[in-house]
Amino acid sequence: MTTAVVLPLILALAWIGLQAITWHFAAEAALTAARKGAQQGSEYQGSAAAGKRKAKQFAERLAGGNLRAVSVSSAGSTPQRVRIVVSGTAPSLLPGKDGWHITQSGTAPVERWTKPGEDQ
């Protein structure tokens, strides 16, 4: 009787743990890609478009199949600051659920030359 009650609970907890790990890995991959894209776009003579390309390449390479339907945006970027947003879907281990949506962003100030005494 005890095994019949405890074993399904243990299996359910293990399943939930695996889902949490899968989601976390996909979220970290999206965050890292967004940060790498923001870094690339903020470099001297860089651009938001270059940051988007870098983020897309990095997300697809790092996450593999753990972050699906990757989309990258530079909405919110200004001449002083680059903002890269990476979105995608983490796979679901639950039957009937397509996946878990993830959105992460990274920002960085644009590098530029300044003269001594000029406001940063």
TrEMBL record:
<protein>
    <submittedName>
        <fullName>Pilus assembly protein</fullName>
    </submittedName>
</protein>
<feature type="region of interest" description="Disordered">
    <location>
        <begin position="96"/>
        <end position="120"/>
    </location>
</feature>
